[in-house]
Write a structure and sequence with these properties.
With 352 residues, this protein is an alpha/beta fold. It has helices spanning 2-54, 63-91, 124-133, 139-147, 165-177, 193-207, 224-232, 285-293, 304-310; strands at 111-118, 150-158, 180-187, 210-217, 220-221, 240-246, 275-284, 318-321, 327-332, 344-348. Helix 5 links the parallel strand 2 and strand 3 (180-187).
Length: 352
Amino acid sequence: MHSRASQNRLSTPSRISVLLLAMFATMAAVYVAGRLWQDAENRVYLIQELDKQTGQGQSAISVDDTLKVLTCREQQKKLSELEMDLAAATQEGFVPKHLSKNDGTRSKKKLLAAIGIITTFGRKKNRDAIRKAWMPTGAAVEKMADEKGIIVRFVIGRSANHGDSLDREIDNENRHTNDFIILDGQVEAPEESPRKMKSFFIHAVENWDAEFYAKVNDDVYVNIDALGAMLTTHMDKPRVYIGCMKSGEVFSEQSHKWYEPEWWKFGDKKSYFRHASGEMYVMSRALAQFISINKSILRTYAHDDVSTGSWFIGLDVKHISEVKFCCSSWSSVFPPTSQGQFVQLCELSCLQ
C-alpha cells in the first residue's frame, strides 16, 4: 500500500507538466497562425493597393512565367552565339545563298566573270560603239555566258526626277537591247559615283554566282577572250584585287576638279593609298561578297576607285598591279558618226 501511494504522488506533478506543456504549445500555435493570417491579409492589401496605383491587373509572376522568362533568355543567348558564328563565317567569304525571287537576271550556271560597264545619260553613242566592238547583243549574250562564262551589262542609275525623259530614254533603249542593270534605288549623278559602284557590286553578287566581278568604264575596249584567259590564272587566289594600281595625289583645293572633301584623312603628304584606277578593275567573289555584306558601314570618298580600294584596307587581300588594265593611249577606234563625232575608246593595250 505504501508503495502504490508513493507512485501516485510522483505521477501527479508529471501530469501537470504535460498539461502545461500542451497549453503552451496550443497558445504558440494559435499565435503563429494568427501572425501568418495577419501577414497574408497585409500582403493581399498591399498588392491590391499596388494594382490600383499602377493599373496592372497582376503584380505577381507565377512559376510558369518565371520559367518562360528563363527559357527566353537562354534562347537569346544561343541566338547571340549563332550571330557571332555567322559574323566569323562571313568574314571568310562564306554566305548563304540568297532566297530572293528570280527576276530574270540570275544565272544558274557558275560564271567566270560578271562585268558591269558604268555608263550614264547622254552616252548612247558610247554604248552603241561598245556593242559593235566587243559586247555581244541579242542571243549572243547568252551564248557568251554559256561558252565563256562571262556576263556583261551596262550599269546606270535613275534620274533625280524619277520617271522623267532621261529615265524613259534608258527604259526604251533597254527594251530593244535588254543589256542594262538599272539601279532603281540609285540616283544617277557624278557625285553619286562611289555609291553607284557599291550598288552595282551588291546587285551583281545577288544575281550572279561568279568567280570574279569587274567594273569597266564605257570608253574602254576589252578583249573578252584575253580577259578570260588572264582571270583563270588567278582563280587559285581567294581574295584578289586586280587593276592598274596607283597612289595618286589628294587635292585639298575645293576648286580643283578632283577635290577630296576628306583630304585631311590622308596624312601630311596627301597621297591616296594604293588602289586600282577607275578605267577597269576586277575583284574576286569573296571581296564582292564582303562589299554586299558590309554595305551599310562601308565609307565612300569623292571617287569610286578610291572608295573601292579603301574597302579592302585592313583585309587579307592580294593586290595585283596589272599593266593590261592601264590605258596606254587614246585613239579613234570607229569612224565619225553621222554628226561628225568620233567615238573614242581607251584601248587596253594587252587585251586587244
